[in-house]
Amino acid sequence: MTEGKIWLNGSLVDYDNAKIHILTHALHYATGVFEGIRCYKTVNGNSAMFRLQDHMQRLLDSGRIYFMDLGYTRQQLEKAAIDTVKANRMEECYIRPIAYYGYGKMGVNPMPNKVSVAIAVWKWDEYLKGGEGGGGGSDGKGARLMVSSWTRIDPKSLPMGAKATANYANSALARVEAIKAGFDEAVMLNSAGMVVEASAENIFIVKDGALATPPTTSGALAGITRDSIMAIAKENGIECKVRDISRDELYTASEVFLTGTAAEVKPVGEIDNRMIGDGRAGKMTKQLKSLFEAAVHGKDKKFSKAWLTPVN
Ligand SMILES: Cc1ncc(COP(=O)(O)O)c(C=O)c1O
After folding, report:
1. 89-128 pLDDT, tens per residue?
2. In this structure, are residues 215 and 167 in contact, taking their beta carbons and an 8 Å threshold?
3. Which CATH code is given to the segment(s) 5-122?
4. Residue spans per domain, the chain
5. What Enzyme Commission number(s) does the record list for this chain (predicted)?
C-alpha cells in the first residue's frame, strides 16, 4: 500500500508524510520494538482485531525491556490502532505498530533521544507462499523449509522475549539464505542445536500423535498465534507439549506447521529435502488451522469475546 493514513505520535498523517530523520537512532543501532496484528472480517459482517490487547501489552513489555517509555497507555495504543484501520477504511488488514528511539544525539546510548510511536496498516493476504520460492500456498503443498546455517540469537546476547528490530537482522539473513537456496523459509536452531523457530514464525511438530513446540527459553518469541493454537488445542482435547525439539525430530515428525500473525497457520511440506507426511497439511494441522480460522473470524464463541476487538 502506498497511500492512506499512518498514525504518527498521536496524529493521522498522509502516507507520504510519515517520514523519519536520517539520524534516527533506531536506523543506526536497531533500537526499536514493534508488533504485527491482524484485523479480520467476522461472521457478523464487522471487522475485528485479533488479540489486540495481547499485542499492545507485548509492545509495551518489549519497550520496557529496552528502557523505552512509549508515552501511551495500552488502551491509548489500542484506540490508535483502531483509528488507523478506520481511517484507511480496511475490512481486513495487517497492522504494524512500532516504537523507536528518534534523533538528536548520536552514539550507542539511545536514552538521550525521544521515543516515537507509529502505526501503519496494509493488506497482507498471504505472507508465505509461491513467489519467494514457491510452495506453502493455495496449491495445497506445504512450505519448503531449510535449517539455517545461522544460529538463532542466544537469549544471553539479546533479550529474545522482546519483539525488537535488532532480532531481525538474524532473521533476515536466515530468510534470504533460504530463499536463495530455493526454499520458502528458514528454521533456526539455537547454540545448543535445538529447534527455536522460523525467521518470523513459531514452529509446531506432531510426533507420535502428540503436538509439541519449543519453549520460549530456547530463544523463541512467545508468539500470540502460538498461544492461540495451544489454547485451541487444549479446548479440543489435544495435548501440546512445550519441550526441546531436536533437528532430527523435524525430519521424522508426521506433521510440521508454522504459526505467526503474518503467516497464520502454515503447513510445512518439506524440511531439508525430506518430505513431511505426504507434503501437504496433515490431519492435526488441518484441524487446528480450521479451528484457528474459525476463531479469528468470530465463528467460535468460546474465543471470540476474549480475542476479538470490534473496529466499529
Ligand atoms: C521471530 C518470530 N517468532 C514468532 C512470531 C510469531 O508471533 P505472533 O504469533 O505473535 O505473530 C513472529 C512474528 O511476530 C516472529 O517474528
Report:
1. 999 999 999 999 999 999 999 999 999 999 999 999 878 8
2. no
3. 3.30.470.10
4. 5-122, 143-296
5. 2.6.1.42
